[in-house]
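User: What would this chain look like folded?
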Amino acid sequence: MTDKPGIVITGASGRMGQMLIKTVLESDKAELAGVVERPGHDWVGQDIGIAMGGAALGVAVTDDALGAFSAAQAVIDFTAPEATIAFSKLAAQAGCVHVIGTTGMSDEQIAALDPAARDTVLVRAGNMSLGVNLLVQLTKKVAAALDEEFDIEVIEAHHHHKVDAPSGTALMLGEAAAEGRGVKLSDVADRGRDGITGARKKGDIGFTAIRGGDIVGEHDVLFAAAGERIVLRHMATDRAIFARGALKAALWGQGKAAGAYDMIDVLGL
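Assistant: Here's the prediction, encoded as structure tokens.
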């Protein structure tokens, strides 16, 4: 028996899933309690260590998410929006902390997580790194200090496998800029330019997405006015920073009151 929280990782075969598994295994503060994959996946039934190309770890990959969650204290979930919504209901039923790093969620999908947050701790963030969350706070402050003479553009770059754009982090930064200016991002976002688009609308917050190679994640917030530019930047070179942040959130959530939280809460920012 151990008093270390048991952590379940969903989407075990994915790049973030495998990174999360390694991060939990290397931690002296948590234990790997289970790993989940979708029904029919080749890994289901295999020992996760062997499936990942190493030695057996005594933890079998399962497609029974509720069974895995019920035997754990937290689940870390970097999967897809619909899967995350389903997992939120199961995590609430099992009473375990649900840490969500899934990106590409619509406002409606995010709202669908609300019922689960009434029954358990739910920590959701578009990015789990300390540096990015500091950048979010800085973006809000700079946007509040500058008027609409400064155009705001969020520029993000990721590897060519990423399926959503703008990235969850870019949207976090856009939300921070909009909050700083006292407006709703949905009213001022400019998320696509192609062809003869006309001049940029004053007050808009623009997004540019770059996809290529193995870029882990780069985000710039550009404030551009006549004669001067301010650029806030974060560059990630190792996705382990996201896994470490997610584990920190899972540990932080132990014993907290049910509710919806983000990494700003976890980091005390």
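The mean pLDDT is 96. If you want, I can go into more detail on any region.
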